[in-house]
User: What shape does this take?
Amino acid sequence: MSTGPPSPASQRRRQCAAAVAAAAAACLAPLVVFLAVLVLAPSLIPRLLLRPHHVVPYVTSAELRLLSFDTAASALAYNLSTVLRFDGPPGLYARRYTGIKAAPFYAGQELGAAVALPEFTQRRGGSGGGGATLPVAWAGVQRVTPGGRGARAVAAALARERAQGLISVKVAVRAAQDGEESDFACVLSFPVPRKRDGSGRGAAPGVFDGGSCADAVRGEF
Ligand SMILES: *[C@@H]1O[C@H](CO)[C@@H](O)[C@H](O)[C@H]1NC(C)=O
Assistant: This one.
Protein backbone atom coordinates (compact mmCIF):
# COMPACT_ATOMS: atom_id res chain seq x y z
CA MET A 1 0.00 0.00 0.00
CA SER A 2 1.26 3.46 -0.81
CA THR A 3 1.70 5.91 2.07
CA GLY A 4 2.85 8.80 -0.16
CA PRO A 5 0.99 12.06 -0.80
CA PRO A 6 -2.64 11.67 -1.93
CA SER A 7 -3.10 11.06 -5.62
CA PRO A 8 -4.56 13.90 -7.74
CA ALA A 9 -7.66 11.73 -8.17
CA SER A 10 -8.30 11.41 -4.41
CA GLN A 11 -7.63 15.16 -3.97
CA ARG A 12 -10.25 15.92 -6.60
CA ARG A 13 -12.67 13.57 -4.84
CA ARG A 14 -12.12 15.41 -1.56
CA GLN A 15 -12.60 18.84 -3.22
CA CYS A 16 -15.74 17.54 -4.87
CA ALA A 17 -17.09 16.23 -1.57
CA ALA A 18 -16.37 19.60 0.08
CA ALA A 19 -18.21 21.41 -2.72
CA VAL A 20 -21.22 19.10 -2.39
CA ALA A 21 -21.29 19.67 1.39
CA ALA A 22 -21.13 23.46 0.92
CA ALA A 23 -23.94 23.33 -1.64
CA ALA A 24 -26.04 21.15 0.66
CA ALA A 25 -25.47 23.57 3.56
CA ALA A 26 -26.44 26.50 1.33
CA CYS A 27 -29.60 24.66 0.37
CA LEU A 28 -30.43 23.49 3.88
CA ALA A 29 -29.94 26.81 5.68
CA PRO A 30 -33.05 28.44 4.19
CA LEU A 31 -34.93 25.17 4.73
CA VAL A 32 -33.99 25.17 8.41
CA VAL A 33 -35.08 28.82 8.74
CA PHE A 34 -38.32 28.02 6.92
CA LEU A 35 -39.03 25.06 9.22
CA ALA A 36 -38.24 27.14 12.31
CA VAL A 37 -40.70 29.83 11.16
CA LEU A 38 -43.30 27.16 10.39
CA VAL A 39 -42.97 25.70 13.89
CA LEU A 40 -42.83 29.02 15.75
CA ALA A 41 -45.34 31.05 13.72
CA PRO A 42 -48.50 29.61 15.29
CA SER A 43 -47.33 30.69 18.72
CA LEU A 44 -45.57 33.91 17.66
CA ILE A 45 -47.98 35.47 15.18
CA PRO A 46 -50.99 35.62 17.51
CA ARG A 47 -48.76 37.12 20.17
CA LEU A 48 -47.43 39.76 17.80
CA LEU A 49 -50.56 40.59 15.85
CA LEU A 50 -53.60 39.59 17.85
CA ARG A 51 -53.07 41.59 21.02
CA PRO A 52 -51.90 38.96 23.50
CA HIS A 53 -53.15 41.09 26.40
CA HIS A 54 -56.66 40.83 25.17
CA VAL A 55 -58.82 37.84 26.07
CA VAL A 56 -62.51 38.52 25.47
CA PRO A 57 -64.68 37.14 28.31
CA TYR A 58 -67.84 35.12 27.90
CA VAL A 59 -70.95 34.43 29.93
CA THR A 60 -71.48 30.82 30.99
CA SER A 61 -74.92 31.41 32.52
CA ALA A 62 -77.15 34.16 33.88
CA GLU A 63 -80.43 34.56 35.75
CA LEU A 64 -82.83 37.48 35.82
CA ARG A 65 -85.11 37.33 38.87
CA LEU A 66 -86.53 40.81 38.76
CA LEU A 67 -86.61 43.80 36.45
CA SER A 68 -89.54 46.15 36.92
CA PHE A 69 -90.07 49.85 36.60
CA ASP A 70 -92.25 51.74 39.06
CA THR A 71 -93.35 54.74 37.01
CA ALA A 72 -94.75 56.69 39.98
CA ALA A 73 -91.48 56.40 41.92
CA SER A 74 -89.38 56.43 38.72
CA ALA A 75 -87.46 53.50 40.16
CA LEU A 76 -86.11 50.44 38.41
CA ALA A 77 -85.94 47.36 40.67
CA TYR A 78 -83.50 44.68 39.56
CA ASN A 79 -82.09 41.37 40.70
CA LEU A 80 -79.82 39.38 38.40
CA SER A 81 -76.69 37.29 38.48
CA THR A 82 -74.24 35.91 35.97
CA VAL A 83 -71.05 33.90 35.69
CA LEU A 84 -68.22 35.35 33.62
CA ARG A 85 -65.18 33.49 32.31
CA PHE A 86 -61.88 34.60 30.83
CA ASP A 87 -60.17 31.73 28.98
CA GLY A 88 -56.91 32.65 27.32
CA PRO A 89 -55.09 30.48 24.81
CA PRO A 90 -52.84 27.92 26.54
CA GLY A 91 -50.11 30.42 27.29
CA LEU A 92 -46.35 30.32 27.59
CA TYR A 93 -46.64 32.67 30.55
CA ALA A 94 -49.16 33.24 33.33
CA ARG A 95 -51.46 36.09 32.43
CA ARG A 96 -52.53 38.37 35.31
CA TYR A 97 -56.03 39.86 35.46
CA THR A 98 -56.58 42.89 37.68
CA GLY A 99 -59.07 45.72 38.14
CA ILE A 100 -61.95 43.55 36.96
CA LYS A 101 -65.39 45.11 37.35
CA ALA A 102 -68.81 44.59 35.86
CA ALA A 103 -72.04 46.61 35.79
CA PRO A 104 -75.44 45.87 34.23
CA PHE A 105 -77.25 48.40 32.04
CA TYR A 106 -80.87 48.43 30.95
CA ALA A 107 -81.97 50.73 28.13
CA GLY A 108 -78.84 52.82 28.67
CA GLN A 109 -79.45 53.09 32.44
CA GLU A 110 -76.73 51.73 34.73
CA LEU A 111 -78.20 49.51 37.47
CA GLY A 112 -76.33 50.39 40.64
CA ALA A 113 -72.58 50.72 40.78
CA ALA A 114 -70.05 48.44 39.09
CA VAL A 115 -69.11 45.41 41.20
CA ALA A 116 -65.38 44.73 41.65
CA LEU A 117 -64.35 41.13 41.01
CA PRO A 118 -61.34 39.33 42.50
CA GLU A 119 -58.08 39.49 40.57
CA PHE A 120 -56.53 36.24 39.41
CA THR A 121 -53.66 34.74 37.47
CA GLN A 122 -54.47 32.46 34.58
CA ARG A 123 -52.86 29.05 34.96
CA ARG A 124 -50.37 28.03 32.29
CA GLY A 125 -51.58 25.58 29.67
CA GLY A 126 -53.92 22.88 30.85
CA SER A 127 -57.37 22.21 29.48
CA GLY A 128 -60.14 24.76 29.69
CA GLY A 129 -57.76 27.67 29.13
CA GLY A 130 -56.79 27.86 32.78
CA GLY A 131 -59.08 30.85 33.26
CA ALA A 132 -61.21 31.83 36.24
CA THR A 133 -64.93 31.51 36.85
CA LEU A 134 -66.27 34.80 38.20
CA PRO A 135 -69.80 34.79 39.63
CA VAL A 136 -71.34 38.23 40.07
CA ALA A 137 -74.76 39.40 41.25
CA TRP A 138 -76.55 42.73 41.37
CA ALA A 139 -79.77 43.60 43.18
CA GLY A 140 -81.35 46.86 44.27
CA VAL A 141 -83.41 49.80 43.14
CA GLN A 142 -82.07 52.34 40.66
CA ARG A 143 -83.70 55.75 40.69
CA VAL A 144 -84.13 57.29 37.24
CA THR A 145 -84.67 61.06 36.85
CA PRO A 146 -88.51 61.32 36.83
CA GLY A 147 -90.08 62.36 33.53
CA GLY A 148 -86.69 62.51 31.83
CA ARG A 149 -85.55 60.90 28.61
CA GLY A 150 -83.94 58.02 30.57
CA ALA A 151 -87.17 57.20 32.41
CA ARG A 152 -89.16 57.22 29.16
CA ALA A 153 -86.57 54.99 27.46
CA VAL A 154 -86.63 52.48 30.32
CA ALA A 155 -90.45 52.36 30.47
CA ALA A 156 -90.76 51.99 26.68
CA ALA A 157 -88.05 49.31 26.40
CA LEU A 158 -89.51 47.27 29.26
CA ALA A 159 -93.06 47.42 27.86
CA ARG A 160 -91.83 46.41 24.39
CA GLU A 161 -89.56 43.61 25.62
CA ARG A 162 -92.13 42.16 28.02
CA ALA A 163 -94.59 41.99 25.12
CA GLN A 164 -91.96 40.27 22.97
CA GLY A 165 -91.03 37.89 25.78
CA LEU A 166 -87.27 38.60 25.91
CA ILE A 167 -85.49 41.12 28.14
CA SER A 168 -81.98 42.21 27.11
CA VAL A 169 -79.57 43.45 29.74
CA LYS A 170 -76.10 44.61 28.81
CA VAL A 171 -73.27 43.87 31.21
CA ALA A 172 -70.26 46.14 30.77
CA VAL A 173 -66.99 44.52 31.87
CA ARG A 174 -63.59 46.14 32.37
CA ALA A 175 -60.40 44.18 33.02
CA ALA A 176 -56.69 44.84 32.86
CA GLN A 177 -54.78 41.90 31.39
CA ASP A 178 -51.11 42.11 32.30
CA GLY A 179 -51.74 45.78 33.05
CA GLU A 180 -53.45 46.64 29.76
CA GLU A 181 -57.06 47.72 30.26
CA SER A 182 -59.91 46.64 27.97
CA ASP A 183 -63.68 47.13 27.97
CA PHE A 184 -66.21 44.53 26.92
CA ALA A 185 -69.97 44.35 26.48
CA CYS A 186 -71.95 41.19 27.16
CA VAL A 187 -75.58 41.08 26.03
CA LEU A 188 -77.73 38.82 28.22
CA SER A 189 -81.07 37.86 26.74
CA PHE A 190 -83.59 36.56 29.28
CA PRO A 191 -87.10 35.13 28.98
CA VAL A 192 -89.37 37.34 31.12
CA PRO A 193 -89.11 36.09 34.74
CA ARG A 194 -92.33 34.71 36.23
CA LYS A 195 -93.67 36.34 39.36
CA ARG A 196 -94.99 34.48 42.35
CA ASP A 197 -98.70 33.71 42.17
CA GLY A 198 -101.27 34.54 44.89
CA SER A 199 -100.27 31.49 46.94
CA GLY A 200 -96.60 32.53 46.85
CA ARG A 201 -95.59 29.76 44.42
CA GLY A 202 -94.46 29.60 40.82
CA ALA A 203 -91.77 32.27 40.74
CA ALA A 204 -89.17 31.41 38.08
CA PRO A 205 -86.17 33.45 36.96
CA GLY A 206 -85.44 34.16 33.33
CA VAL A 207 -82.45 31.97 32.46
CA PHE A 208 -79.83 32.85 29.84
CA ASP A 209 -77.70 29.93 28.65
CA GLY A 210 -74.63 32.00 27.95
CA GLY A 211 -72.82 33.58 25.07
CA SER A 212 -69.71 35.49 24.18
CA CYS A 213 -69.01 39.13 24.93
CA ALA A 214 -67.62 41.66 22.47
CA ASP A 215 -65.04 44.41 22.53
CA ALA A 216 -66.52 47.71 23.63
CA VAL A 217 -65.55 51.33 23.28
CA ARG A 218 -63.99 52.81 26.41
CA GLY A 219 -65.96 55.08 28.69
CA GLU A 220 -69.01 53.02 29.67
CA PHE A 221 -68.36 53.20 33.41
C1 LIG B 1 -82.10 38.56 44.70
O1 LIG B 1 -82.54 37.23 44.43
C2 LIG B 1 -81.95 36.24 45.25
C3 LIG B 1 -82.42 34.89 44.78
O2 LIG B 1 -83.80 34.83 44.68
C4 LIG B 1 -82.30 36.51 46.70
O3 LIG B 1 -81.68 35.55 47.51
C5 LIG B 1 -81.85 37.90 47.08
O4 LIG B 1 -82.26 38.19 48.39
C6 LIG B 1 -82.40 38.94 46.12
N1 LIG B 1 -81.83 40.23 46.45
C7 LIG B 1 -82.55 41.30 46.75
C8 LIG B 1 -81.81 42.52 47.15
O5 LIG B 1 -83.75 41.28 46.68
Summary: The CA atoms of residues 122 and 131 lie 5 Å apart. The longest helix spans residues 8-49. Residues 65, 79, 139 surround 2-acetamido-2-deoxy-beta-D-glucopyranose (CB under 6 Å).
